[in-house]
Amino acid sequence: MTDTPADNRRLFSGIQPTGIVHIGNWLGAIQNWVALQQDYECIFSIVDHHATTVVYEPEAFREAMLEVGIALLAAGIDPERSVLFVQSMVPEHTELAWIFSTVTMYGELGRMTQFKDKSEQHQHNVNVGLFTYPVLQAADILLYKAGFVPVGEDQLQHLELAREVGRRWNRRFDEGFFPEPKALLTPARRVLGTDGQSKMSKSMNNYLGLLESPDERWAKLKDAFTDPQRLRLKDPGRPEVCNVFSWHGFFSSEETIAQVDRDCRTAGIGCFQCKQLLADSMEARLGPMRERAEELRARPDQVWEILHEGGRRARAIARQTLTEVRELMGLPGAAE
Ligand code: TYM
């Protein structure tokens, strides 16, 4: 298997249109997407086909896609520089997914932890799409021959599978055709939720939304789990085991972090004050983003146009890959 060629500076990443972008998504992935735009050729997708593996309501789904598009733009994805589009605008994703399904083993998919979790959560809808979800994800990445994939830790298993699938296809049809994409992680590779136990996610309802108002945020933050041994104000706290303190690490200045660390250990401040300081730090970072999102919400047609334009640019690359793949596999060209 060929390693990613040194001149491959293309990256791909995706996010599901659940309608909520939470700070876990931002800290684990999106913030990195924004920074990487400087040095990479970036392709970002709102992966609607992945999200249809669970039951949804079509009208609300369109709104959710738009809202995620707005959040990404407000966070700093620059559509002049990067390609931003909705997955189903480029039908080649599903075509390549079919092709990859023939070089993916049943047993491999059964081992995917996300599949196990989701089939627990949606026991009455364990559909085949939920099972083959990682095959579509492999197609997303390799359709663009991307060398890099900025994601949170929960996607590493899927990425490993994408590498394996690409290797297998290459071995059969053309050694070196698909690169071996590498993960790009942030220091916040696994952000915990307000329960302080599980990964922050919409389905666990333990999230802080990226674009929430200070009131909405505070309503959740004030009840967020802290050091379980700190029961009274006069008990000294242990920042190293406190999830709220870890969030300070992502949002607060060095000075505030040092101050909170000291005052928590000496019981100089309680968890309530620590959370108030965090709320201020969060608002300083996220407030301007919420304002940009508000402006974009007033112009939905313009946002859709950005996504469609991204779709056109993505599709030009995707068609080229599929033309080559068809030829290498002995399939005729697609009808015009
Ligand atoms: P999704 O929509 O669940 O999440 C989008 C991105 O956010 C990261 N993330 C987190 N990072 C740190 N802490 C958390 N609590 C947290 N929660 C989410 C995810 O790792 C992800 O990077 N299957 C993917 C979407 C996808 C994709 C792709 C990603 C489809 N095709 C191709 C990369 C490449 C998903 O469900 O992400």
Label this structure with key terms.
53% helix, Rossmann fold, elongated, binds tryptophanyl-5'AMP, Tyrosyl-Transfer RNA Synthetase, two-stranded parallel ribbon
What's the topology here?
Blueprint: E1 10-15, H1 23-36, E2 41-46, H2 48-51, H3 58-75, E3 83-86, H4 92-101, H5 106-110, H6 113-121, H7 128-142, E4 148-150, H8 156-173, E5 182-184, H9 214-221, H10 243-251, H11 254-265, H12 271-297, H13 300-329
Parallel strand pairs: 1-2, 2-3, 4-5
Helix pairs in contact: 3-12, 4-7, 4-13, 7-8, 9-12, 10-12
Bound molecules: tryptophanyl-5'AMP.
Structure description:
- The structure is a single chain.
- This protein has 336 residues and is mostly helical.
- Helix content is 53%, strand content 7%.
- The chain has helices spanning 23-36, 48-51, 58-75, 92-101, 106-110, 113-121, 128-142, 156-173, 214-221, 243-251, 254-265, 271-297, 300-329, and strands at residues 10-15, 41-46, 83-86, 148-150, 182-184.
- The protein is elongated.
- The two termini are 34 Å apart.
- The mean pLDDT is 96.
- Tryptophanyl-5'AMP is lined by residues 12-16, 24-25, 28-29, 47, 50, 137, 140-141, 149, 151-152, 154-155, 188-191, 199-201.
